[in-house]
Amino acid sequence: MSAEPIAARPQPGAVDPGRTPPIVDHGPRGQKVVALTFDADMTPSMLAALKSGQVKSYANLAILDILEERRVPATFFVTGMWAERYPDVLERIAAQDRNEIANHTYRHAAYKPNCYTLEQLPRTEMTADARRTFEVLAPFGGNQTHYFRFPGLCHDAAALTALAPLGVTVVDGDVVSGDPFATAAAPIVRAVLDRVQPGSIVVMHITEANAAFTDEALVPILEGLAQRGLRPVKLSELLASVP
Ligand SMILES: [Zn+2]
């Protein structure tokens, strides 16, 4: 007789497969905690820019330096292509128990038409694209989750239906920092500190060349949160009491 399989503990964000994914954009407002989230985008054209030497890096290591030095928990929404390009950086992220890893699709193609200038993923490919990303991320270990963030936060009913077999929770955010293509740190700091409140999910990027001032903005953001008595926690902790 074979041994009883050990029941895998469900990952944070996991819901029953087949259920239309719940969507959250913030946690409960009653506790003075917030979740800092960092998206790790990568598209085929970004990869081409790296390969040609036109762009030096899409991995902002200074963000990790700051978070590690200050022991700040964070959640990283990672594309499969970013994980494949920066395995050492994702290993560093996964090695910290303060961090969580979540799914940001394989190649950052849009799951809904007319999402900024993003390439549109055919509907028939969406489920496989998201599943493939989980398969790329899983071997990195650490605190893996079943949280999922759409590129550009763009989603519609068809996109949600496509994700239903995977049993994910969709995570938007109520504080969009505007860090992609920002030309200075101050507007990012202002965007976050003007809007943040208890339970907020803050959306930032760890993509360096496409978000060059995020690390510079992060220190004043952390100081502003501390002044407001808002403590950064893992996304799963923020959402622990959300049904
Ligand atoms: Zn993104």
TrEMBL record:
Entry-linked InterPro entries: Glyco_hydro/deAcase_b/a-brl (IPR011330), NODB_dom (IPR002509), Polysacc_deacetylase_ArnD (IPR050248)
The keyword Ligase is assigned to this record: no
Top-level taxon: Bacteria
Pfam families assigned to the protein according to its UniProt record, in alphabetical order: Polysacc_deac_1
Keywords assigned by UniProt, alphabetized: Lipoprotein
Keyword Lipoprotein: yes
Residue ranges occupied by any NodB homology domain in the UniProt entry: 32-233
Gene3D superfamilies in the cross-refs: Glycoside hydrolase/deacetylase
One of the protein's GO biological processes: carbohydrate metabolic process
GO MF annotation list: hydrolase activity, acting on carbon-nitrogen (but not peptide) bonds
Annotated stretches, region: Disordered: 1-28
PANTHER family: GLYCOSYL TRANSFERASE-RELATED (PTHR10587), SECRETED PROTEIN (PTHR10587:SF134)
Name this polypeptide is given: Lipoprotein
